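Next comes a single protein record:
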Amino acid sequence: MRIEENTGQRTQADVSADSFRSRYERCTLCPRACGVNRNAGKTGFCRMDARMFGARAALHMWEEPCISGETGSGTVFFSGCTLGCIYCQNYEIARAQVGREVTVPRLAEIFLELQEKKAVNVNLVTPTHYAPSILEALKLARKQGLVIPAVYNCSGYESVEALRMLDGWIDIYLTDFKYMEPELAARYSRAADYPERAKEALAEMVRQTGEAVFEENGMMRRGTIVRHLLLPGHVRNAKEVVKYVFETYGNRVWISLMNQYTPVEKAERLREAPELKRKVTKREYEALVDYAVEIGVENGFIQEGETAEESFIPAFDFEGL
């Protein structure tokens, strides 16, 4: 498959892409605003320069039903991360220990290849620090026939300015909302400002997507899904997240309550938080689900059975790259 850029269309996006590329020179793509010149090979918190690296691009069946469907979500896992949680289940790629360089034209090809494999969407996992390159790849792929939705699958720790530049290109925001307690955000993700930044980012995401739109087969075509991964011992924080999201947006957004927290012993900094070296109990998760029902959440997803297994973590073997 050959990708050729066809100029003269979507002028506004061309301008956005140019503006985005310039931000690699003094990077402020995430709230950490490191300000390093990634074009010159420098790296900030995400550990990545301006080159784009990935670890896997394949059909993925383990997302929410309206994202995975029957044929799978076309998921692209990127290397590096702007948040760096100490309990990260994808620690190998988040810490940039694993990755293969992917050019913008190649990423556009990957999107089209995933569509040919019957992916119901292209699912961009940890995309924040590569947003300029991803925007260019989406532009190329749309011109060459990409019609499935683009999913921005992120940590919630986002720059509103960067999100605004993606307006019109992202169809679905699949965002985490990890913390309402700054102390937890500081302890586990070195980001005490996470609650405020996540609130601001979510407001922009909902502004862009509006009410959720579904196709006849139940697949989401447009909308925002807010995920919360329940951490062991932190039901109170989880309830605060659910309360804030529901009281602010009601049933305009979908809330996904996850019990799949997996204590990965190889995660390099998990030793700093021994309280996280266990799975979430059934009682903890049921307390969270019951609370969501009590306050009136109707549009949501829950997980049933045993999901906290390393088998749910895909192999980062460069498939599809």
Summary: The longest strand covers residues 220-229. The chain has ten helices and ten strands. The beta strands are 53-60, 73-78, 100-101, 122-125, 150-154, 172-176, 213-214, 220-229, 254-258, 300-302. The CA atoms of residues 61 and 303 lie 14 Å apart.
